[in-house]
Amino acid sequence: MAARRALKAVLVDLNGTLHIEDAAVPGAQEALKRLRAASVMVRFVTNTTKESKQDLLERLKKLEFDISEDEIFTSLTAARNLVEQKQVRPMLLVDDRALPDFTGVQTDDPNAVVIGLAPEHFHYQLLNQAFRIIERSVYLMSITRSSYVMDKLEGRLHRLLLDGAPLIAIHKARYYKKKDGLALGPGPFVTALEYATDTKAIVVGKPEKTFFLEALRDTGYAPEEAVMIGDDCRDDVGGAQNTGMLGILVKTGKYRTADEEKINPPPYLTCESFPHAVDHILQHLL
Amino acid sequence: MAAWAERLAGVRGVLLDISGVLYDSGSGGGTAIAGSVEAVARLKRSPLKVRFCTNESQKSRRELVGLLQRLGFDISEEEVTAPAPATCQILKERGLRPHLLVHDGVRSEFDDINMSNPNCVVIADAGESFSYENMNRAFQVLMELENPVLISLGKGRYYKETSGLMLDVGGYMKALEYACGIEAEVVGKPSPEFFKSALQAIGVEAHQAIMIGDDIVGDVGGAQQCGMRALQVRTGKFRPGDEHHPKVKADGYVNNLAEAVDLLLQHTDK
User: Does residue B174 belong to the interface with chain A, where contact is any CB pair within 8 Å?
Assistant: First the structure.
């Protein structure tokens, strides 16, 4: 790896890596302290569609992790950043608990839809409302595109609409496990809206490249100077490695035997748990 | 484009889509599209064979035909090819016992089907019944099957009601496909078997038949795939962009069914 530079930033997944639901991974608080004592920046990254940053922070505090709000980057943050960057007015088809992360976002007369896991909102009327919003935006974009060719409209207006983001998905998980069995994730409902409007959603969560780049952005460091630690081989490790980071897979949380064989190239390192990953970083990557 | 006489030469049979061509559905049943009642009547007085070919899966054929009769249409149940009866035939042939994710209005079509211990899921335009809970139940049934079978009554993206565009079954079918990693079997337009069964009912060959519909992909594209000709009407869910569709080009675009029938009677009744 010729392009590799000295390690400057460490991205850490939350649930499954630092803690499992309401229990900390043994030794994780101590390990985090040791990592912070070294000269690296730490960011905490997670795919969540229903927990606001505040909720995450409260749980981490209860588990006695020393973490501040501006160190957390979630798929909801990524969605909000995209909404602001594209200057769209979204209908928020997300769990009510996620709404605090969108405070201040303009949602009147919506021209886009942000969709996360929100079973209580996934009924026909609301999905149909979302469908109509996306359909209308896609249609307006298509008209603008063709009239641009004919009338040579002002370039700025044209770009704004062309780059529109009518459908933003927090992530596209197919289903998840509940105590009483499998339950549909947001992915199927995103797919339904994609098909009905003949348009592709922009997915903002892990394993998307932009997610990792955005998470690193305010550290000022490049992917070649960063490592990602997580329990999901595809979404954490594979996604991060695709951007040029190193990926460390921990055998906690959702890890299942032989998960490390699921991606090519394989994880940079597979180890028992977060404290082992920190030991490796301190001994070999600094 | 060639003259109408050339485009319509040799047509002996006509397949008519219902929603968006005969009427727009909506609250209180819906409204007939201007000129369509007379157009159907004229067509039926002509030597041309006529068959109604619909993907309507919210209502039973009886309910649909009753509604159209009240709007003034000359139509009977025996003249309608619809996906629910076609599905029942498939279920019986293959010994399938369905879990139904359908609108209450179409349930009666499945009255003589065994639904105990389901070994497949049948999904139709369920409208308000497309709740998260109902989708989840269908998903769980499929995930418990060794060979999950999903049958979808049509795969339309959306249709138009008087209040605006409405999500059709297609999106929900795609949702279950994506969740389970399977591919649904579609009964209804644009599946070739469905068009063929409609043609068989009036004894007309595909090359002698023309489809009239408002859906550029499901009606026009599907019929053309079967070797039929097809006209798109500028009513129902028609959008101006349809006339420049990247994949499908109709054999003609007409303002409404009345204009289509004018042209057919003028150029085929020789």
Answer: yes
Note whether B171 and B157 are within 8 A (CB). yes
Q: Residue B168 corresponds to which amino acid?
A: D
> Which of A125, A142, A182 is closest, CB to CB, to B140?
A182
Please, are residues A247 and A285 in contact by the beta-carbon 8 Å criterion?
no
Residue of B nearest to A129 (CA): B166
Convert the pLDDT of each residue in A95-108 to its tens digit: 999 999 999 999 99
Task: Calculate ∠ Cα B200-B202-B203, nearest 5°.
Answer: 60
List pLDDT tens digits, range B69-118. Answer: 999 999 999 999 999 999 999 999 999 999 999 999 999 999 999 999 99
Interface mutation target, options A95, A121, A124, chain B, most CBs of B under 10 Å: A124
Contact A187 B178 (CB under 8 A): yes
Q: Which residue of B has its CA nearest to A185?
A: B179
Task: Let me know: does B177 contact B168? Beta carbons within 8 Å.
Answer: no
- Per CATH, the number for B4-55+189-266 is 3.40.50.1000
Mean pLDDT of chain B: 96
Residues B11 and B266: their CA atoms lie apart, in Å, by: 12
Cβ neighbours around A198 below 10 Å, total: 11
B128 to chain A: closest CA residue: A124
Of B131, B158, B174, the CB nearest to A131: B158
CA distance A281 to A284: 5
Q: Which residues of A touch B (CB under 8 A)?
A: 119-120, 122-125, 127-128, 131-132, 135, 139, 142, 174-175, 181-185, 187-189, 191-198
Quote the longest CA-to-CA distance of chain A.
65
**A253 vs A156, higher pLDDT:** A253
Cα-flanking dihedrals φ and ψ of residue B150, to 5°? Answer: -120, 120
**Which residues does A146 contact at the CB level (< 8 Å), separation at least 6?**
none
Q: Quote the minimal CA–CA distance from B172 to chain A in Å.
A: 6
Rounded to whole angstroms, the Cα distance separating A248 from A230 reads 6
Q: Which residues of A touch B127 (CB under 8 A)?
A: 124
Cβ B239 vs Cβ B44: under 8 Å: no
- B83-187: in CATH 3.40.50.1000: yes
ipTM of the complex: 0.89
CB-nearest to A181 from B140, B175, B177 is B140
Q: Is B129 on the interface with A (CB under 8 A)?
A: yes
C-beta of residue B132 within 8 angstroms of C-beta of residue A185 = no
A134 CA: distance to closest CA in chain B (Å): 12
A128-186 residue pLDDT tens: 999 999 999 988 877 765 544 444 444 444 444 456 789 999 999 899 888 788 999 99
Asked whether the domain spanning B83-187 has the same topology as the one spanning B4-55+189-266, the reply is: yes
The pairing of beta strand B229-233 with beta strand B252-254: parallel
Task: Give just the sign of the alpha carbon dihedral B100, B104, B110, B112.
Answer: positive
CA dist., res. B73 & res. B66, Å (int): 9
Every domain of chain B and the residues it spans: 4-55+189-266, 83-187
